[in-house]
Amino acid sequence: MKDKKLDNIEVLLKRPEVQEATNNINRELVERREYVPPKCKAFEHPYTLLKDSDRFKFNIDKEAKKHLSDIIHNKVQTIEGLYSPEESFRDRYCKRRNIGIVFSGGPAPGGHNVIAGLYDAAKKANPKTKIYGFLLGPDGIVENEAIEITGSLVDAYRNLGGFTMIKTGRTKIDTKKKMALSKETCKRLGLDALVIVGGDDSNTNAAFLAQEMIGDGVQVIGVPKTIDGDIQVRDAQGQVLCAMSFGFHTAARAFSNAISNLCTDSSSDVKYWHICKVMGRVASHLALEVALQTHANMTLIGEDLCNYIDEKRIEEAAKENDIDYTAYGMTLRHLSRVICDGIVRRAAVGKNYGVIIIPEGILEFINEIQIFIIKLNTIIAEYNDTHDTDFHTDFPALEDKLEYLRRLARVSREDRRFSVWNTRDDDLFNDIPEFFQEGLLMERDSHGNFQFSQVKTEKVLMGLVNDYLNILKENGSYKIGIEKSYYRKVFEKGGLDPDYFGPIIFKNYDDAEFLLVKSSIISVKTLKQALEKEQVISEAEEIPAPVEKIFQKSVPKFKTQIHFYGYDGRGNDPTRFDCNYTYNLGLTVFSLVANGSTGQMAAIKNLEKDFSEWEPIGIPIAPLMHLEERKGKLTLVLEKSLVEVNSTSFRIVKAFREKWLAAIPGDDNYRRPGPIRFTGKSEEDRPITLVLNALG
Fold first, then answer.
1. N or C: which end of the chain has fewer CB within 10 A?
2. What is the pTM of this model?
3. Shortest CA distance to 252 belongs to which of 566, 29, 584?
């Protein structure tokens, strides 16, 4: 019997229908691979030419000028198409080359199309040109681990997400030894150019590699990648050169579709608040875009919190001829109160549910938390600099770390010159929950950054929210509004006069669509007391069933579901926008290489406009560098771009906050962005933030 079953399954597995249904290759994959992205106008020509532009100026950092002297004066280069160049130009453009490419940092949808664009352009110019892919990120350069990228390999990954083709890694080429090994790798492979696809740190690395390898004749080109959207380039006059890094649109759309589904669930089951943390350690671009895509009830934007000013506290201080510096910037406790206010107002109209979007790095914008992070970063960095081991090895347990901080606090009492960690800091730190102390004291990442993704930000914030909601519940401020028609129906069915009981139970019976139980009625006991006071029932009588039923429905139960959106979005197959964007970035890379550039970042200008207006350019990386504290030291890095609170997109979101909160009777204002589609006329052609900012 058993053998017969095995025979049956073997026959079943051979059936064409089963093989088609279970094949790795499905119709969506085939369609994606076959899609050919359109080319910018300049790339419709057989050749391209670079022209230096004097339109764009940069404020150059003195340290950048000192350390990147050979590329600091690079200019923005525009790319123009060319049909019939001189023979000498054609020979240089079409010469046989060896080009290496590496992915650095976390994956971002569209990376494979950068390789595809570079490969297609290079092979078109000279079929003998070789493209090498370094494996597992910059480690592949240091250790000379590379593969030759072939046409069949490129075709297998066209328009697909992830960095699966050659993988990625987070190593930085930041020591003399790593630099020497990298130069040796380039020499062994005979590389003419090296392409680094990555974020701000990776493009910083590209600048230093370009400076170091200029004498070896190796060109280095960077490509802006990060789903956080925090690589945005403007010149000193604010002219936009790169409006968004690739991968942002796809991640935002993937998150938005999932969060939109939660909006639908929330308004269907009407009992959960979905708390959605989205990636964005330093900037809130993703949260802003997701807000525009979904119209979630509340979206916190970190950069907005920094700008908050408590006018009342300033006025009170002014009366005393004083300045209250703590009135500038949102505190964690105040932020929790803002959230509670929205929750209470929605509950009052019968909506004890909703969706809140929180950016991953929201804590970085909270004053008291930021001070703790800066101080602890300094303490950890100084300890590591002065000891043979590191802070986290020497103090593995939380209690060990806390004891070390207590010792520092004692030192501050004995020596007033020591101010990094004083007694007040220690007292405040010991007041916060243990899990949050552990989060703030966790090991920093390889760049010395505090790892916000590892901290349960939502737990910190929602813990405060839950505590305050309980206080509001106890004082009768937090109640669920009862629809008046429902109330009348219940009472009439139970044989009670709703108009008689209404003014006794509710504080707004005469003029509201949703009725709120009086603040003094916070329990069955106080409800009975209210009825006895009005002589509706005697002390010996029970509360009428309809009355107790309505009261119980007015008592809120705050239930949350926590979600984190990050890795799922960055691994998504790219949107059509990101497919087109990254393919043209790859074409831009080759144009820069073929025309002799180095120390430039490939970019597409006018991303916020229609595709017909996209312009491929090269942006000098060195002039974008500035000094920033990393691991307790000032280091040259590419500056991250934050959400501008004066931007059109943010001002529009701010204007719609009240509408999207929907703390009024009636439907919510949720938007359904739908899944990422590769076909159909309804697919959007660019991020909404770019569309709106273009209007401004």
1. N
2. 0.91
3. 566
